Amino acid sequence: MLAILTLIQDENSRNKLEEIYHLYGKLMYYIAYDILKDYHEAEDIVQSAILKVASNLDKITDVKCNKTRGFMVIIVRNTALNIYNQRKTRSSVPYENIENLIIDERIENPEQYVLRLDQGEWIAEQLAKLNPAYADILALKYMYEYKNNEIAELINCTEGNVRIRLYRARKAMQVILRGEKYDQTEQR
Amino acid sequence: MIKPNNDNEDKLQNIMATYYSYIGQSHVDVINIDLESKEEEINSVQIPTSLDSWFDDYIKVSKEKDKHIKRKKQIKQIGSKVAMIVLVISISLTILTFSVEAIRVKVLNLFIEINDKYSEFKVAEIDEYDNDVVQRAGDYEPMYIPEGFVIDHTEEFNDIKTIEFTDGDNGFIVFERAPNGTDYQFDTEDAKVSEILVKGTKGILIEKNNGNILFWNDEEWSYFILSDIELKIIIQMAESVEKK
Q1: Which range has highest mean pLDDT (A41-50, A172-181, B14-23, B149-158)?
Q2: Does the keyword DNA-binding apply (chain A) (predicted)?
Q3: Cβ neighbours for B208, distance < 8 A, ≥ 6 positions apart
Q4: Which of A90, A142, A177, B67 could be disulfide-bonded to B21 (CB atoms 3.0-4.6 Å)?
Q5: Which among B164, B148, B172, B159 is positioned nearest to B67, based on CA atoms?
Q6: How far apart are CA B29 and CA A135, in angstroms?
């Protein structure tokens, strides 16, 4: 991998990155390999993820916590999925070809469904079952509070791609909340 | 359906953004629960040594860059003090031009007082610096470089050549060679200043807590070595300076 790196030039950040690597290195490698089934590609993904995290260390306040562990999983998984999708020939229209579609950026009104506050995990699971990337993108956007361009940078995709994923994730959420059956064929 | 006005729409957007954040948090909780069930499997993963090496190299390069910047700052700090003193000297010399001999002595005395904090080192008057010096210019460098040190970078400005050495860790050595007549001002506040022979000629050794400076000259050049390494190594290095 090319070593054109964002070098960290303060000791605290460096220590933080070392702690992240030692705590989550195996986990990142495991996730990447699980998706790509290729040792070299998995290694590349981990390197890429580490460099992405190195550029965003200020947003990680506590290394040893579920929030950071989840963040590492999301970054590695989505970067690996992007590689996987590029590798795989799909019959459906790829993300990049439909980026010019007009996307309604507004968040849908919750008038037609109930926001279930006692079933967050169940809803998140349902969403992840439809497509793990949907749940991931919602987490990156609304929980980790990254902007679309930052998410694109983090998971190696275009900003348009992020917008489409967010749109689809929100649409999928509506369907789950309404208790309707989700047609995945339209969403691929 | 009632069409919401802008205020209501903003509120609804905020509600949904908060709800999505809640779902995001729940999603992260689910990820962590899932990981706990796979903990044993994950812990048994062997990270390739090439990945570990890559990371170690990345951190090492980052540290070296960091140290390089710190060293630059350290040298710049000395430089800025020098610049301040040069200004004082320039003003003093202007006064000298219009002064009688008695006042000239006073100005010189004043100058020496300033040297209590910053000592001037100059081997000859700048006027003596002529083209012959340039013709004599050879690439004088230390032939002995302490073990573990390598050249980090070299800078040349007119006849002044500076070589910075690094050991890849905290150690640094700055060697500079300039034509005789070049003014040097070194911070000697709270320093032990002593005379020392380098290759048979008198040199000045300035010992401070954060580093030592050895200044000496030969018939053509003035030299200094600035470093935090052992004095005897600095002296050995100075003794080894030869025409390349």
Answers
A1: A41-50
A2: no
A3: B187, B190, B191, B192
A4: A142
A5: B172
A6: 12
Give which of A182, A178, A139 is closest to A162, Cα–Cα.
Answer: A139
**CB-based contact (8 Å) between B200 and chain A?**
no
Q: Does A119 lie in the same domain as A67? A: no
| ipTM, 2 dp | 0.80
Residue A112, classed as helix, strand or coil, is: helix
As a whole number of angstroms, the distance between CA A98 and CA A79 comes to: 20
Q: Do residue B47 and residue A170 have CB atoms under 8 angstroms apart?
A: no
Q: Which amino acid is at B220?
A: E
Check residue A31 and give its pLDDT: 95
Classify residue A2: in a domain, yes or no: no
Size of interface A-B (CB pairs under 8 A): 142
Q: CA B133, CA B41: separation in Å to the nearest integer?
A: 73
**pLDDT of residue A144 exceeding 60:** yes
Whether residues B27 and A135 touch (CB distance < 8 A) is answered with yes
For the record, the structure tokens of A118 come out as: 């006692």
Q: Quick check: is A138 in a domain? A: yes
Give the residues across from B241 on adjacent strands. B142
Taking the Cβ of residue A74 and every Cβ of chain B, the question of whether any pair is shorter than 8 Å is answered with yes
Which of A50, A67, A117 is closest, CB to CB, to B55?
A50
- Kindly report the backbone phi and psi dihedral angles of residue A119, in degrees, each rounded to the nearest multiple of 5, phi listed first: -130, 35
> Would A164 be classed as within a structural domain?
yes
User: Is residue A130, in this structure, part of any structural domain at all?
Assistant: yes
Q: What percent of chain B has pLDDT over 70?
A: 69
Residue B230's CB is within 10 A of a number of other CB atoms, namely 11
Is there a single domain that holds both residue A68 and residue A127?
no
What predicted TM-score, i.e. pTM, was given to this entire model?
Answer: 0.58
A115 contacts on B by Cβ (under 8 Å): 15, 19
Interface touch B24/A108, C-beta < 8 Å = no
Three-state secondary-structure class, residue B137 = coil
Q: Map out the domains of chain B with their CATH numbers.
A: 57-243 (3.30.200.100)
Residues A41-98: tens digit of each pLDDT: 999 999 999 999 998 898 899 999 999 999 999 999 999 988 888 777 544 444 444 4
- A76 with A121, same domain? no
Question: Which among B18, B23, B32 has the least Cβ separation from residue A123?
Answer: B23
Of A10, A69, A142, the CB nearest to B35: A69
Closest-CA distance, A106 to chain B, in angstroms, reads 8
- Residue B119: CA atoms inside 13 Å, Cβ hemisphere, count? 17
